[in-house]
User: Fold these one by one.
Assistant:
Number 1:
Amino acid sequence: MLFEKILYPIDFEKHSLEAKPYVLKLKEAGCKEVHILHVLLPSEWGLLPKEEYDSIEKVEGLKSALSEGYSDALIKRFKEMEELAKEFEENGIKTKVVMIPGELDEVISNYADKYGVKLVTLGINAASLSIFRVGKIMDVLKATKQPILIVKSESEE
Amino acid sequence: MPLFKTVLYSTDFSPLAETALEYVKKLKEAGAKKVIVTHVVTSLSIELPEGTDLMNSEILSNVLPKADQLYVTSIIEKLDRIKKNLEFNELEVEIALRYGTPGDEIVNVAKEKGASVIVMGAHGKGLLTEILLGSVSVDVMRKAECPVLIIKKREE
């Protein structure tokens, strides 16, 4: 039960994808379900209606709230998440793909609570844990109650 | 892929560390073969160099004062109990008992032993404390070269 349902937030940077092999490996330790989450930061996407965008139709529904370039970029990202989900599905892991607007810490901790997530896996850049960068990842670490697997990458942001 | 082959399990013998031990055992199913059970002693009646190996019988018998000997021996007994528990679960086990700064020593042991992952509990101190002093888990996350599995204290 310890690794049964894993929340895997991604930001499409190389470091967030480096956690993928670890999530896949945890299937052997009982992982049955992986939720791939992309948080739509207000600083990047503006204020979007706070919903769980878990289908391409719902993401396409955001066209009216976004300018065309942004809307296409969002659809492209969702499709990339679906591609990623396929890898897990091919390995016998059930998946859910979802985009949610909001701040990183708030969205991740609320989602993990709401869906009974057993483990949060974060692929991060080493610099994001720097003592000089108090926000973002440190906020997620503080806000999340579930166990967290941190996979750190030294690659450039 | 040996992603979880050698696990460094850091314990302060708290209930949270016991919870973290369950995760260590579970990682066996994901390929864990060996566990380095690690504890860092932070205070003794004498000063020792950072990173001193307290499993070294020479130090234990000839360097430490009697009271410290008893204290360290009691810790070794606790570590031995954890070792037996893990061996019962068919994991190879090594004990690392060091003197020094916990964050630094946990990361040093992980490097020396080639740990694939560090598993530890995080008691979660206040925001200000963490920023100013750095809790052990945050220190380990910052300095470790391998992934870190943090088991958080659940607020019931």
Note: Chain A has one domain: 5-153.
Number 2:
Amino acid sequence: MSVLTKKDIEQVDLPRMSDEALLSSSLEGNLVAFDLLVDRYYDRLYGYLIRFLKDSDTAEDLLQETFLRVWRKRAEFKNIASFSTWIYTIAGNLARSEWRRRKRWRMLRIGPSRNEEEAAIELPDAGIGPDLIVENRVAIEELTKEVHKLPDRYREVVILRDIQGMTYEEIAGIVQVPVGTVKSRLNRGRLILQEKLGKWHEST
Amino acid sequence: MKVRRSSTFCELVAESFSAYLDRSLPASVEQEIAAHLDQCPECLQRLEEMKTLIADLYGLGGIEAAPELAWSVKRAVRRLAQRQADAPVLRPIPFLASAAAAAVVLVLVSVGSGPEDASLDQHAAGSSEMQVTQNPRWERYVLPAQVGEENVPSLFDQQAAAGDTSTIREPSRIRGARAVRF
């Protein structure tokens, strides 16, 4: 009869552990604990990044970079914020940097260029299925396109609140602005979407 | 209650839709907006449209990433962890480096100040040698390392924090070592 060691028992308990406890375990070199964090967050973070950047390749790259940074900086995590807020902050900072970099390139581009606003939205098919509340695929694509056209500061809070279902407090921690600012940006973003989609519905 | 109906007030109401739906407005303001909505079909329609929009946005969620993506991330983390663990065992020598720097300074000062300061040099060299021999850890120290990841926590930090200095190593700060960024 085999005897379970303390380490074996810890591994069995890992799925029940909090994010913070898993991160703490990974500090001792436990890669299985870190794998569980990847399993818990890769989907959500990928959704956030792809909606922010509208580019699946870059979203995949930044997703990987996010987890590598978490691994490198895991000793710096302080329990002031939740792990969720922390990892979203890292992903958000990467996404914003990438977005700014793209903006600079767009400004520097000379001559006729690909109009990214009109470009086809590159989303994996897996996300557009029968579970969606909006049934009309054209409407979904239009809505996705309009979300992407929102100014950065509005787009980010709309994605985090209305698509990812985060609380205002979590968003304030990720975006690093006061809760009141999150609320006003969200409202403004929604009103812009409403206006744009209203015009789109009228035209169709 | 007198219900105002003007385009300006309608805009003001629209600006408060999110807070109204969240029930986070003061009770008096909420009542005023509710009264306005009873009287203003345009605003009521905009509010209903916003509710639909929020539901539609929520419906956009749930992009499923391919499971291979999670595996790819895990493999990348393992490679990084392996590189950190496999890096050559070189150890920092902060105290010895400081002592050497101090000795160089003292030698330079003594060259400039003449033979009357020679006893000071000897004293300094002697005291520094005495400190080194008092702590066997310093014997393992080598030059302080530098790779472009100054704020990266490392196995060195973790082991040192845990008080484990038996296999202490600092791969990410070794001079000339490859940076572990992907």
Note: Chain A has two domains: 16-122, 128-199.
